[in-house]
């Protein structure tokens, strides 16, 4: 099969693939969503009756290629994105996108019996079912949630819905949950644009809501009746209660150690680390930096201190006597995030993380992670990746089964926004 090179993603695209993509790009400009969905059904699901014979033959050639097992998910995924990207400005996009996804959700109900007369159709059906169970399709469904809920959140989510439906709330997860190695440049740009919009909206909503609630509190000190008359211009932008929200804001913006904020402590530690000679010295000081009163004396003395210290000792031990440098800082912080949150999709165990949440709660747990990111900002995407692993791991669970994770995700949203966003929340003490 003659192939052309796609330089950015080190993947080749065959003429038949390109013919398929060009065909759908043309059709999305002139046909309605329902007509396009019918095209996908006939071409990919039924495998027969497609009105354009040349396109059906192009797909047959793709299916007969020896590398189809590796390439098919990418090909079908891109076909879906061509349609969805073409629909994203339509008022009816939600209905259209969900109808498209329903085609693949129904694949599990299909059997091979009806395809016994054709090895090709049976093979196509097998590939389709594998796609419906793939990470590409999971990312596609998350992207659909973001597009279909792009106007904001005017009502609380249903706790019986899967966690996946909350993905629009967390822009910091978009890069890792919605993109893959083979995402096109245009799709990456679209995701980053939506991400920036969502992040900016959350920042503004959080700032306005917080300022309004503080004003009500000040009025309530004089007259509770007058405070009740002050109507909020917008609802709580988080899924936390007002008490939980302001506890989180005070933790991530206010004073937590004497007169010091998290930022103050991080600046002082960074300044001190400039005079550290060896990596061993850094690890000892890093241990003291992380082991603060927020962990709770009983819990830290009972078990966490020992785990933390032992973990630090096994991080690049052969470099203990070497001069401390930025590379060692980055490696230490990233490995500590593996230890505290989760290591990888292949090793999704997160017992330490669950233990932390159970003992000190989501707000202080996120505070501990924030301390790491504040002294090594390059590790922030790595932290976001850890949480995308957890999100993907639990995305099919009902929300009421993972309330603990939702509270952590909300706290992290507040922590990142208040420390790395463009708004000033220093009025909260």
Describe this structure in words.
The chain has 18 helices and two strands. With 429 residues, the protein is an all-alpha fold. It folds into two domains: 4-133, no CATH class; 197-420, no CATH class. A hairpin with a 4-residue loop joins strand 1 (4-6) and strand 2 (11-13). Helix 15 (326-340) packs antiparallel against helix 16 (351-375). The longest helix has 36 residues, at 185-220. The radius of gyration is 25 Å and the shape is globular. The model is unreliable at 1-9 (pLDDT under 50).
Care to give the gist of this entry?
The protein has 429 residues and is an all-alpha fold.
Shape: globular
Q: Number of DSSP helices?
A: 18
Low-confidence stretches are 1-9
Number of strands: 2
Query: Looking at the chains present, what oligomeric state does this protein adopt?
Result: single chain
Which range does the strand content fall in? under 5%
Helix content: 55-70%
Output the strand order for the largest sheet. Answer: 1-2
Straight-line N-to-C gap: 65 Å
Biggest sheet record: 2 strands, antiparallel
For the residues shown, what is the average pLDDT?
88
- By helix and strand content, what is the structural category? mainly alpha
Radius of gyration: 25 Å
Element-level helix/strand string: EEHHHHHHHHHHHHHHHHHH
Total number of distinct structural domains? 2
């Amino acid at each position: 099969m003659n192939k052309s090179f796609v330089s950015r993603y080190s993947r080749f695209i065959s003429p038949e693939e390109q013919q398929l993509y060009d065909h759908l790009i043309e059709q999305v400009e002139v046909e309605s969503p329902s007509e396009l969905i019918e095209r996908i059904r006939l071409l990919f699901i039924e495998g027969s009756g497609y009105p354009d014979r040349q396109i059906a033959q192009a797909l047959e050639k793709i299916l007969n290629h020896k590398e189809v097992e590796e390439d098919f998910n990418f090909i079908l995924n891109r076909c879906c994105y061509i349609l969805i990207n073409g629909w994203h400005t339509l008022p009816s996009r939600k209905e259209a996108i969900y109808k498209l996804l329903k085609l693949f959700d129904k694949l599990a109900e299909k059997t091979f019996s009806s395809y016994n007369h054709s090895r090709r159709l049976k093979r196509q059906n097998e590939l389709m079912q594998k796609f419906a169970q793939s990470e590409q399709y999971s990312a596609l469904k998350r992207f659909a949630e973001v597009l279909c809920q792009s106007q904001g959140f005017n009502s609380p989510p249903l706790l019986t819905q899967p966690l996946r439906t909350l993905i629009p709330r967390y822009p910091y997860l978009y890069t890792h949950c919605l993109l893959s190695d083979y995402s096109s440049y245009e799709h990456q740009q679209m995701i980053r644009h939506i991400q920036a919009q969502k992040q900016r909206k959350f920042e503004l909503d959080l700032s306005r809501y917080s300022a309004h609630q503080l004003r009500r509190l000040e009025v309530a000190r004089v007259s509770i009746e007058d405070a009740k008359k002050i109507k909020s211009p917008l609802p709580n932008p988080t899924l936390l209660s007002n008490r939980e929200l302001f506890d989180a804001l005070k933790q991530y913006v206010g004073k937590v150690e004497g007169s010091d904020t998290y930022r103050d402590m991080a600046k002082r530690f960074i300044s001190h680390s400039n005079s550290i000679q060896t990596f061993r010295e850094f690890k000892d000081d890093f241990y003291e930096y992380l082991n603060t009163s927020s962990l709770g004396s009983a819990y830290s003395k009972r078990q966490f201190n020992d785990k933390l210290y032992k973990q630090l000792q096994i991080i690049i031990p052969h470099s203990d006597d070497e001069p401390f440098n930025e590379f060692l800082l980055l490696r230490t912080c990233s490995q500590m995030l593996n230890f505290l949150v989760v290591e990888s999709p292949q090793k999704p165990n997160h017992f330490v993380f669950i233990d932390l949440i159970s003992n000190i709660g989501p707000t202080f747990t996120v505070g501990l992670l924030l301390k790491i990111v504040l002294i090594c900002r390059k590790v922030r995407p790595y932290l976001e990746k850890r949480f995308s692993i957890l999100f993907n791991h639990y995305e099919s669970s009902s929300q009421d089964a993972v309330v603990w994770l939702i509270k952590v995700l909300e706290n992290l949203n507040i922590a990142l926004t208040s420390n790395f966003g463009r708004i000033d929340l220093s009025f909260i003490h």
